[in-house]
Specification:
The complex is a heterodimer of chains A (113) and B (114). Chain A is an all-beta fold and 113 residues long. Chain A has no helices and ten strands. Chain B has 114 residues and is mainly β. In chain B, strands 2, 4, 5, 6, 9, 10 and 11 form a seven-stranded mixed sheet that branches. A four-stranded antiparallel sheet of chain B has the order 1-3-8-7, with no helix packed on it. The chains are: A mainly beta (113), B mainly beta (114).
């Protein structure tokens, strides 16, 4: 039969607007979370991380929010630019010395001129 | 600073041929990860090493896949014999284990088996 590929959630925003990318994680015991950005033809690139003892962390133009009650993570990008167009993955780990990351399926962000 | 370096960047090979993918870790890092990315399954962890020792290879699809770390800075992922369903992007990533969980990815090796 025909294989069906992953259908990534997509988000389109106008250049200059703010973007919010959401992620539901699976393991309530996870204590460390990372957002990665993957541009076409490249490897995933670290953006920002957050530990479970925090609910918000800010970087340059990016903010990550963590809601442990509902196991939800979000990435906010301020003043979105064309270079922000990419697939964004959230990843979670279990344990302070976790050995591996579990990646979400990703969200395709497209910035419209 | 040099990141994780992978080679080849692109390879097209015929079914049944041996494929060897190579990875050089970021200097000073002591954990290495091999991932595979496909449209069907997303990013999958194949195997990871700490201090040159394989820790978890449960993600390796089958015996046709093998990975080695002959030294602290270099790793190979070998597929023998290759099959069309092995076509994917293979990423190597490394981490400095004692300072956190963030891992840094290479640019990937794009493999097509025909």
């Amino acid at each position: 039969g025909e294989n069906v590929g992953l259908h990534l959630p997509t988000l389109s925003v106008q250049e200059g607007d703010n973007s919010i990318i959401n992620c539901a994680y699976s393991n309530s015991a996870s204590d460390y979370f990372i957002w990665y950005k993957q541009e076409s033809g490249k490897g995933p690139q670290f953006i920002i991380d957050i530990r479970s003892n925090m609910d918000k962390r800010q970087g340059q133009r990016v903010t990550v929010l963590l809601n442990k009650t509902v196991k939800h993570l979000s990435l906010q990008i301020a003043a979105t630019q064309p270079g922000d167009s990419a697939v964004y993955f959230c990843a979670e780990t279990l344990g302070g010395s976790a050995r591996q990351l579990t990646f979400g399926s990703g969200t395709q962000l497209t910035v419209l001129p | 600073d040099a990141g994780v370096i992978q080679s080849p960047r692109h390879e097209v090979t015929e079914m049944g041929q041996e494929v060897t993918l190579r990875c050089k870790l970021i200097s000073g890092h002591n954990s290495l990860f091999w991932y595979r990315q496909t449209m069907m399954r997303g990013l999958e962890l194949l195997i990871y090493f700490n201090n040159n020792v394989p820790i978890d290879d449960s993600g390796m699809p089958e015996d046709r896949f093998s990975a080695k770390m002959p030294n602290a800075s270099f790793s190979t992922l070998k597929i023998q014999p290759s099959e069309p369903r092995d076509s994917a992007v293979y990423f190597c990533a490394s981490r400095l284990r004692d300072t956190g969980n963030t891992i840094y990815f290479g640019e990937g090796s794009w493999l097509t088996v025909v």
